Amino acid sequence: MSDFAQDFVAHLEELHKHSSAAMAELRRSLGFAPGAYPPAYPYVERFVAAERHAQDASRLALYVVAGLYALHPRPGGKSLAACLGELMRQRDGAGIEQRFIALLGADAENLAVYLRQVVSLLATGDLPLDYAALLRDLHLWLDPWIDPERRDVVRQRWARDFYRALAAPAGETAPTPVND
Predict the structure, then answer these.
(1) Element spanning 127, H or E
(2) Which residues pair with 75 in a beta bridge?
(3) pTM for this one?
(4) Where do transmembrane segments lie in this chain (predicted)?
(5) pLDDT tens-digit series, residues 16-59
């Protein structure tokens, strides 16, 4: 999925460069259940495999990431959790940690709402986000048929990324673990 995720993010980058109308539609899609806003279909459905049904986790993940990218079109090399930890370290705000804990406890039905709030926070800090990694993680998180332990692996990695970034000395970025 890595090349696929990178291709999708590259597609979003092109949309951002050439179509403010597309970005507006993708932002609006965040107000609906993932994949339930027809004006966003032209920008996302080309990446959905024909055999995928409407509630398929990979399809839902594409719509969530597309909307979040439109909200904060600043791709970069850090995970969502690491960016959030860095933002908290910069602002010294306990509210950020509370939002992160709520995000970790989110279920598939309300995950997009929590992510929209967190990405809005990252936008205020102008922190770049690794959307390809987010897409891969959401594919697992949103899959109702996946072993819950695999979903917990994503949550645990996010927690490690967040607290490592939070603990990094000022002016430094947290090291990226090799085996995570």
Answers:
(1) none
(2) 129
(3) 0.90
(4) none
(5) 999 999 999 999 999 999 999 999 999 999 999 887 888 899 99
